[in-house]
UniProtKB/TrEMBL annotation:
Keyword DNA-binding: no
Domain PDZ: 303-404
GO terms, biological process: proteolysis
Presence of keyword Hydrolase: yes
Similarity remark: Belongs to the peptidase S1C family.
Biased composition (Basic residues): 1-15
Chain spans, region Disordered: 1-81
Bias kind Polar residues: ranges: 16-47
Residues of the Protease Do-like PDZ domain: 411-583
GO molecular function annotation: serine-type endopeptidase activity
PANTHER family (alphabetical): PEPTIDASE DO-RELATED, PTHR45980
Taxon lineage: Eukaryota, Viridiplantae, Streptophyta, Embryophyta, Tracheophyta
Name listed for the protein in its UniProt record: Protease Do-like 9
Family matches, as Pfam families: PDZ_2, PDZ_3, Trypsin_2
Amino acid sequence: MASDGKRKKRGRKSKTQTTLDPTTSTINDEVFSVNNVEIVNSTTPTSAKKHENRCGRPKKRPKHSPEKPEKPPPLINGEIGVAPPVEGVTRVVPAMDAVVKVFCVHTEPNLSLPWQRKRQYSSSSSGFVIGGRRVLTNAHSVEHYTQVKLKKRGSDTKYLATVLAIGTECDIALLTVNDDEFWEGVSPVEFGELPSLQDAVTVVGYPIGGDTISVTSGVVSRIEILSYAHGSTELLGLQIDAAINSGNSGGPAFNDKGECVGIAFQSLKHEDAENIGYVIPTPVIKHFIQDYEKNGAYTGFPFLGIEWQKMENPDMRVAMGMKSDQKGVRIRRIDPTAPESEVLQPSDIILSFDGVDIANDGTVPFRHGERIGFSYLISQKYTGDNAMIKVLRNSKTLEFDIKLSTHRRLIPPHVKGKPPSYYIIAGFVFTTVSVPYLRSEYGKEYEFEAPVKLLDKLLHSMPQSPDEQIVVVSQVLVADINIGYEDIVNTQVVAFNGKPVKNLKSLANMVENFDDEFLKFDLEYDQVLSLSLSLSLSHTHTHTHTHTQRVFGSIVVLRTKTAKEATVDILTTHGIPSAISDDLKP
């Protein structure tokens, strides 16, 4: 008997039920490699069982022969075929030969020094083949492209690709390959319907961490209007819990039937979030493809040029003359350049769009048990389409047939691959403001670092004319002619010689054609810049080399023959050196 008075009980152990976590792999989990479909059983080693300490009677061994190992699924054209049925559902593993790797060489413009480009760099991403000898990928995968090449799975050849269209807002790009060899043995991907919540999805692509194809799986977690980071717009999107890493961009997301239900394009990186990825759904993809097929080019998604507020407060609804059975949203402001500004007015209550009633919170019925923002209805239209809008104005119901168009912002969120516009006179570098320009000047935290005046225009200002731009003095290239102006940086130009500056082209034209004694630029904060015509070219430091031209001691242009490299000429305006981008030349 033990000294502590406790008896050691002997006999059989109590039977306990084991519960498997659905998020963990099962005991007979099988891993298939991409190349040779090698099966690796993750079973517990038998050596561990020999040293297990057993008490009581040993378990009876079955008299029948042990179970034979499960045979792997059959191979069909080198691909894993139909998986074994689970609860009556047959899951088809998609044909991954249609997924390609995209190699791109980028040459971004230097927005801070707009007369030159940055050093080129390379990237890799994913894409997939669709009908019509075309390939889909993400727009940010080929942004500012110089060269794009595609490589098929299992191939060692890279094929030169041609970019047919880039949809910046929806972050989709359309490519093709002229070489017939590329299309041999490749079947295009078929598109499926918009999935439901908890539907299984499989993301296929070429992310970081290896060179071969990668497959991750998850379920649809959310379906709503999402913010597209690259396009700075809001469109329908899917949230999934499958891992989407760098390099997965442009890869397809398949459902259980092997149909493509979306394109992986971004993920949420946050310390409080894990495995949150986003997929461009098929309605957005089909809109992009049909837009290209209809117009021969990408024209964009239409938007209503309005700002609206919710009408959830009952007193607010009574004050606006709404009846108890009426719902809608109130128009705060209207873009003066939008077509709807001719018929809609501030304080109008939008009751319905194309016959679909809008709730007080701005949502419309989507599917059973789901609601979505009414901007989804607008995004289903095409540029130039008409829409019927019912509004409440002064307690009267009115209907208007409005022609939809793309929305233009005063400070554009992207440059769409175009080189920046600029104008240089007497060392003053004038350019236009865009979100990429702010990011170039102030980094990723430009929303906190940029001048308040520019941020206010970015968030709240609307253009008063279709060609209005925010023109700023980007920097001052130091010279004798501009002594005392060296500290002026990113300050808006309001007027030139008393005339308002509408855009950069109008400023360049006024400077080229002025006949006063002084060049006078009116800046914000009541600053003034004045230059005398008596200071001619001889008063400035100008030095010319065979391949390099210098103005005011700063390199303005390095002449090269690189693809897409703009050629800049040093001009003389009223005896003062100047330079102008190609798009502003008469």
